[in-house]
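Milestone M4 deliverable, item 7.
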Amino acid sequence: MPKDFAESLEDLFDDFCALFYSPPKNKKVKKRKEKLTTLKPKEEDNNDPNRASDDDLQEALNVTEIDLKIQENTEKHHTDAYACTQDSNEDEKPVDDDDDGPELVVRRGQAFNIGVTFNKPYDVKRDDLLLVFKTGKYADTHPETHGRMQLDETGKAKRCSDGWSCHLIKNEDCTLDIEVHPPATIAIGEWSFSIITKTKGKRKSLCYEHKDNFFILFNPWCKDDAVYMPDEKERNEYVLNDHGVVFRGNSLRPRGKDWNFGQFEDGILEAALFVIMKCFKEKTLYKLSDPVKVARVIAQVVNCCDSDKGILWGRWDGKYDDGCSPLDWYGSVRIIQKYMETGKPVKYGQCWVFSGVTTTVCRAIGIPARSVTNYKSAHDTDNSCTIDKYFKQNDKGVLEPDSDSDKDSVWNYHVWNEVWMKREDIKLTHDNTSDYDGWQAIDATPQEASDGKYTCGPCPVYAIKTGQVKIPYDCGFIFSEVNADIVHWEPVPEGHRKFKLRTDKVGKSISTKAIGGIFSNRNDVTDNYKYKEGSEENRKAVMRAVVGSGNRKDVYGDDDEIDDIEFKLLHDPEPSLGSDVDIELKAYNKSKNTRKITRVVITVFPQSYTGACSKKAIKTEEFTQDVKLRQGQDHVFKTTLKLSDYFEEIDSGRSINIQAYAFVKASRSRPIQNCVKSHDVEFSAPVLEVKMPSCVKRGDEFEACVTFKNPLQEELTDCKAGYEGRGFKHVTGEPQDNVPVMGKFEKIYKLKTKTKGNIALTFKFTSKQLHYISGAAEVKVE
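Output delivered:
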């Protein structure tokens, strides 16, 4: 079946399914104190001995009101920022029967309080009270999905880490204040609860089911929870911060892209639980108690490669006409909301988008998470823990990459996630040590299948560093991304021979946002993933991984060939878009003998961030005159990449690859020394300058002035701008006037919000000539 026809059929099927798609309804409490419907006896089965009679109902203790104490509980549980816990009618018109009210969101392993009001005073000598909590259809089959406990009327808390408990705090008039303590090992999700009242000494009881559910999440504040994170600053950053930075660019100039994680915005928590639940059957909901299993599922459902039809559709060929370019996303909220509205995967994402959405989903349910960028990120396709790069000779005898033979690759950068949790599963099957606890790598970008699903991790970062590729999950694959050796193969009559082993070219400047504030510096975490390049510890880790990979190649043991001429490729690491780029290849003779350079070729290609280069070069400069270098001498080969050479050829990622090849006649170890140099370069674009007040009053209007200077020698046309941020309406694709040559763009937005707190606003601009630039600022709303 032709590929295009197959894709059309799949799109048609998706459209058909969307007709019947119904996103989960947001069950919200009408009021914080909800009156329950009075229980009435059934009219049928009048002879049932367990049926409550009219006399029973009159004598029984009847529940008339329940106070979920939402404000008090959510503040203590660090859940008060979720939109569903807010009273949307505050300071507005009176509550309408159809308006949504606030919901209760709590964290497991931590007590919460409720108030229960009865039709008459509660008598501890006469009355008994039981609370029952459940999640899922088969809740009673597993302790992780249900809890049933009798009220402890002594007033003394009796808690245990693996069981429910509740005790009486206050008994006043007809109301009981009760503290409920859920264990830190229960399943996360949407829970129901009911109250059973009975008279001491009597069999019959009355059950009152609360008609609205509430949410229980993971708890990084609880020492008994597997996601416990002891440092308060880290909890504030990796759980509560709803804005951050995802790093792109290159290893020489890591560049942050502002990202609105938005885990507290309207519908995001509900959506996170909805997509996770898609991978669990009703009878396996108890597995939602295990953050390891949940994290692995999150890495699966953020992409849509499996039958679960997850959130994002990945695309890397530059064809985005039927969706949205990955570069046009500046946050997770629009993506998740669109997915929930349509029931179809959102088009399109690339690695930083997958990572941003993953961070949102994890933080929403209480798993500490952060986005991590690995520069010079390898993709090992054959589980060898080495990256094979093949070369061929062109008709001039110059070595050039053989893309038809290459299966492995090295991306300019790749973005994945880390999640924080204990790994009790590893302690049961491997070493009983805490070394594997802490940060775990997961990756939602679909690259290779793992156990039949497009997911990756969680894998302990410690296992990656030490080359323990048998530790679950997917340690070998992630190890190769950060620490694989690159093997260069050249053609010989019998096939290919290794002519160079590069041990220091993979895994550079591994970056994440530093702790503190909405905007902050880069935190280099390379040392978490690998020992220092060239160290004995690092080489031991590499060899441990290669031996354990199960597909070891015979590339070790031979002496490395010795290069007499040292070559360095020099250029501006981050040239400004619109400028020319001077390129130099510097040759230095470090041998004792005179050496002759017979040919040098410098070539520039358009490149995607995955490392894939166009087959058509945009600049080629050949130097064919022999250059002789005596001991200690150097020589520089120079060329310049003009604006006219590259501007019409590069894509919206603004990246190029500079390659340099050189031949040296007669080295110490072989007749010819082949020099191969390759650098990735990303042009820097202007950053939007944002000026707005640092502090405003809730509900007051304020102005945000957004400006930048056009760096190009041509007018910017088809201009569009927008912004997004928590508590503000998201504006996208708003048409703007053309920007003159070297002229200034200016846009003033009039804004206001009723959301309190420190809020980051991200502004964006794009045009036909200058794509996807952004800037951000923070405002404190009091």
